[in-house]
Amino acid sequence: MTRTLQGKQNRGRRNFKNARLQEAIARIEYLWSAAKSLRRALPTASRNYVLLLKKIATRVNHRLDPDELKRHICRRCGSILQLGSNAWVRVRYRLLILHCKSCGCFRRFPLRSKPSGRDSAAAIVVRTSAIEVTPACRGTDRELAAMSAV
Predict the structure, then answer these.
(1) Hey, CA dihedral for 37, 38, 39, 45, is it positive or negative?
(2) Residue 95: partners with Cβ closer than 8 Å, 6 or more residues away
(3) 116: pLDDT strictly greater than 90
(4) How many CA atoms lie within 13 A of 25 on its CB side?
(5) In the prediction, which pLDDT does 36 show?
(6) Residue that wins the pLDDT comparison between 17 and 134
């Protein structure tokens, strides 16, 4: 009889943790959409939203999606990386290099050894720069020009 009672107590605790995680994920999504909408008008507010988003994710031990969030956020200053205005991308030596112009931080992401079809370097750059690519930055680099052809 005590085993069933303990099982019910544990189920209630799991439901509490699950509800807390779902609430945190909803908050993270809301903060991300607010930060994206404010990135040009109020960059400091956008940066604060991103830092709060990261703090919530670490508190509930939730990993941020690499393609959706992590590659679009600067690790050092917390700004949203936007090609042409505050970030640039290079593809060198089978590495994708993201460089933040506001703080000077850069990150390297390895590319596959044999790119095939959709997983080529240009496709990875397109996935990385899914937020926005301005026409001014397309003509500056060969890699970005090749990206627009894909």
Answers:
(1) negative
(2) 108, 109, 110, 111
(3) no
(4) 11
(5) 93
(6) 17
